[in-house]
Every structure is written in C-alpha cells, then in structure tokens.
C-alpha cells in the first residue's frame, strides 16, 4: 500500500518517513539541531514547493520536538517556543497553512512530543510525557492528544490511528519507520525527548 508521507507519534518518541512516487531522490540532513528533507545532489531540478523542508525541530528549550511533512513544522516549533500549548500550536499552524495546493490536495501531517521533567511552576520531578498528533486535509482539521503510538499519513491512512510501534530510541524510530512495509520508502527521521534533551536520528535510503 502507498500512503505517502507519515508520522508516528507516541509518548517521548516520534518518527517521520518520506515515501514518494514522484520525488524519490531525497534525503534527510542535519542542520544545526534540526533535520531537513532535501533533494539529493543528483535529483532532477523541480519547482515543487513542497519537497524540501524541516521535518524535525526541537522546541521549548529542548523540552519538546516537532515532526511533520512540510513548512508548518517551523511555526509549530516557534509557537511552542513562545509557550503555546501543543494542541494550539498544531491547530493554528496547520489551519493557517492548510492542505497543500498540489494535484492531490496533499494533507499536512505533524506531531509534537514532550518528554522532559517539567520546569518552573510544576511539581518537582513531574514529567511531561504528552504527545499530540494532527493533520489538515481538504475536508478536516484533526488534532488530538495521544497516549499510545499513533500514525497519520498523507494518503489512505489519513486519520490518526493507533499503530504498533515499539521503538525506544531515535535511531530505532528512524530505522523502524524506514523499514515499515509501505511502498516507496525514501528516507526517515526519528526523535526522542528525554531528560537529557532531544535526540535525533536519520535513516536514508540504502
Ligand atoms: N512532504 C513531502 O516530502 C512531499 N513530497 C511530495 N509531496 C507532494 O505530494 C505530491 C505527490 O507526491 P508523490 O507522488 O511522491 O506521493 C507531490 O506533487 C508534492 O506536491 C510532499 N508534500 C507533502 O507530503
């Protein structure tokens, strides 16, 4: 089955995979503390505005991280930095940018994971393990908190659905997402938020 791009979001952990029929010559690269999807040097030139973007960004001083399939990742992270609740940062940014105006009305998908011990104003030692997933499609805006790994994709599986995903590290998340049995895997990224901050990992094609 071809489901396009997808995120899996669970407590403290998230994964993002690019699957692509049309633009397979792409990779994930690390730039400072964020991960970016970009064409490989041998990729044919394209003016498609949706194929290069930050797919993982730490936010809120390393207390949380954002994953997603397009330019909405940036405003979500920036709103978290400003102190917005994850639900609001997702909903506002997804709605503002809306689905992609391409031949497929491709949805935007995204997730926010938190994992660090909460800071000022919270009980000592209290851990924030909240996770949120969201998508904006032509017919819907869906944002919800999740307590178990949950997947949403651009095509077919385009409503957040519980998903069996037991990776425990960023590296395992990237590898497991890449290896999932959905067609046209191109590259993947994983992120884990723990007490030591945000850990990221990249899995590019073989
Ligand atoms: N985020 C991405 O990596 C991405 N890759 C392709 N798209 C969009 O989706 C359309 C279909 O791509 P494909 O045939 O590879 O599934 C492309 O024309 C492009 O507008 C993307 N946009 C959203 O997923």
UniProtKB/TrEMBL annotation:
Reactions it catalyzes: IMP + H2O = 5-formamido-1-(5-phospho-D-ribosyl)imidazole-4-carboxamide
Domain Inosine monophosphate cyclohydrolase-like intervals: 2-194
EC number(s) on file: 3.5.4.10
EC class of the enzyme, as a word: hydrolase
Pathway: Purine metabolism; IMP biosynthesis via de novo pathway; IMP from 5-formamido-1-(5-phospho-D-ribosyl)imidazole-4-carboxamide: step 1/1
Pfam families for the chain: IMP_cyclohyd
Superkingdom in the source lineage: Archaea
Keywords assigned: Hydrolase, Purine biosynthesis
GO MF: IMP cyclohydrolase activity
Keyword Hydrolase applies: yes
Stored InterPro entries: IMP_cyclohydrolase (IPR010191), IMP_cyclohydrolase-like (IPR020600), IMP_cyclohydrolase-like_sf (IPR036795)
One GO BP annotation of this record: 'de novo' IMP biosynthetic process
Function: Catalyzes the cyclization of 5-formylamidoimidazole-4-carboxamide ribonucleotide to IMP.
Similarity remark: Belongs to the archaeal IMP cyclohydrolase family.
Xref: NCBIfam families: PRK04151.1 (NF003167), purO_arch (TIGR01922)
Official protein name in the record: IMP cyclohydrolase
Source organism: Salinirubrum litoreum
Gene encoding the protein: purO
């Amino acid at each position: 089955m071809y489901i396009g791009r997808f995120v899996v979001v669970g407590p403290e952990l998230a994964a993002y995979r690019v699957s692509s029929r049309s633009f397979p010559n792409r990779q994930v690269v690390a730039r400072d503390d964020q991960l970016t999807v970009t064409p490989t040097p041998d990729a044919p030139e394209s003016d498609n505005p949706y194929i290069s973007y930050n797919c993982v960004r730490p936010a809120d001083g390393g207390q949380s991280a954002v994953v997603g399939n397009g330019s909405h990742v940036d405003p979500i992270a920036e709103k978290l930095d400003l102190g917005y609740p994850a639900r609001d940062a997702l909903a506002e940014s997804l709605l503002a940018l809306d689905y992609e105006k391409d031949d497929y009305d491709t949805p935007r998908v995204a997730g926010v994971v938190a994992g660090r011990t909460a800071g000022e104003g919270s009980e000592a030692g209290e851990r924030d393990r909240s996770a949120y997933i969201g998508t904006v499609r032509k017919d819907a805006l869906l944002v919800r908190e999740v307590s178990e790994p949950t997947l949403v994709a651009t095509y077919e599986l385009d409503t957040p659905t519980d998903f069996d995903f037991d990776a425990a590290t960023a590296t395992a998340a990237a590898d497991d997402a890449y290896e999932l049995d959905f067609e046209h895997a191109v590259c993947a990224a994983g992120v884990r938020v723990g007490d030591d901050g945000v850990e990221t990992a990249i899995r590019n094609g073989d």
